[in-house]
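EI: anyone free to look at a 135-residue chain?
SC: sure, send it
EI:
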Amino acid sequence: MDTKGLDKAIQEIAIRRNELKKIDYNNPKYDDLEEELHDLEDALHVKYGEYLEEVLQEVHDKLSPDTDVLFPTAYLAKTYIIGANNEFSVATSEGVFVEVDSIPGKDTKLVIVPNPLRIILNVGKDKQQVVWSEK
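SC: here you go
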């Protein structure tokens, strides 16, 4: 698997999502950016969807076996925080809700984060745990 290509593809989607969030619907660039974003998401699914679904299934089997795996793009954050050295992170509010049996009574969400490529479990409003990373 070309994980470097996968990581780069997710970074591009993250950057487009951030750009789209910064502009208003009435901006003439909005439709073009939205179309670019959808094209990037479609390409991600075609090229890496099967691999990502397998990875997500492994994570679900470990943490949340009663929760169905969704399309990989559902696990991408709405907004990414891009820090020094182009490192990506996300707020604890991001991700797909999952029920984690070992953490009852807490909101738990899974989210895919690039650079480095990993899946984070957001627990409540103050905890993040890497539950999978590309070796």
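EI: The first strand starts at residue 81 and ends at 82.
SC: 👍
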